Amino acid sequence: MNNVFSRTFCVAPMMGYTTPHARYLYSLLSTRSYLFTEMIAAKSIIYSKNKSILLKNINIKNPVAFQIGGSDPEDLARTAEIIQKNGFSEINLNVGCPSKAVQKGRFGACLMKEKNLVKKCLISLNTNSSIKVTMKCRLGVDEFDSYEFFKEFIEHILDSGIDTIYIHARKAILKGLNPKGNRNIPPLKYEYVNRIKEDFPDTRFILNGGINNLSQAKNLMLSNIDGVMVGRLVKSNPFILNQVDSLFYGEKYRDTNFMQITKNYFSYIKENIGCDSIYRLLSPFISIFFGIPNSRNIKIQIHKKIKSNSIDELENFFYEINNKSII
Ligand SMILES: Cc1cc2nc3c(=O)[nH]c(=O)nc-3n(C[C@H](O)[C@H](O)[C@H](O)COP(=O)(O)O)c2cc1C
Question: Sheet harboring 204-208: ordered strands across?
Fold first, then answer.
């Protein structure tokens, strides 16, 4: 099942993080990782005045899946065409987000209770675009958490013709638990993903949830799954992506030159100032400091420079801390 657009290693969609800017940074570190946008609601694509920002797709080598949130087949039909025109490689339907706002809009994880509607949505996306349509879901919701429920759901939606499913390997709890809790509290059940692959061997299943390092990801690939999807690990340290092309795609290891990546990323930022907030432009890069012990002082200095719009100073500051071997 491997091809140029292999999904062996995917970076999970993360609202507020997997922006076009983050994807640009990721592409400097790994050209093979399969990338995602943040989830964007179908209604925003149709009605927002900022459509061009929502649909921004920068020119990078990596394939990029556009993640859509919605459950109105007509809305989805309209968005499918627009997404395809913007050069994305895939449209991914979100059937995993447990937030209250998303539930109110009748999409995300609550759709796991509406398999007929999910099938209709996937058919609508498929009929109105020629790019691949996929789905990202959970194992179940609330009391609907048995393997039999999950299998029935998957069996039903596979009638839509899709052949690739990303699974966050825990259920969602729709009442009384916020999205952060829903990413940690319901137990991970990787065995459901292995079983579903056994039951539907012709479908591509990508496992997501709780992968904390690349050797764990590599070990998971020894089971029957078709790929891994990693979220928070990449968010807190995008620089691990420099090992992905060699570890997961058999390419020659290229040592990452932090200075060069910084230089490339800052030229990108300078070209894009005015198109987005400085904070959104910088946040993929500065997120590495959230994981470093004793980095409070560094973070304070970074924030000061962001506030005073001193981009050149900030760039030099990163070279300095690299010289002092802090990163
Ligand atoms: C800040 C943040 C935002 C997220 N936004 C989305 C999103 O827009 N769409 C989605 O399907 N999942 C979203 N997720 C869930 C991730 O895609 C992933 O399923 C989850 O974090 C589990 O993977 P991990 O343990 O590797 O982080 C988000 C996660 C985080 C941490």
Answer: 9-11, 227-230, 204-208, 164-168, 132-137, 90-95, 64-69, 35-41
Indicate the domain borders of the chain.
9-249, 258-323
Q: 90 — phi, psi (to 5°)?
A: -160, 150
Hey, which bits of 18-176 come out as E strands?
Answer: 35-41, 64-69, 90-95, 132-137, 164-168
145, 113 in Cβ contact below 8 A?
no
DSSP-derived 3-state class of residue 90? strand
Task: Convert the pLDDT of each residue in 214-263 to its tens digit.
Answer: 999 999 999 999 999 999 999 998 999 999 999 999 999 888 888 899 99
For residue 12, report the distance from its CA to the centre of ligand 1, in Å.
6
Give me the CATH code for the 9-249 domain, please. Answer: 3.20.20.70
Question: How crowded is residue 116: how many other Cβ atoms within 10 Å of its Cβ?
Answer: 9
Pocket mutation for ligand 1, best pick of 10, 15, 171, 211 (most atoms within 8 Å of C-beta): 15
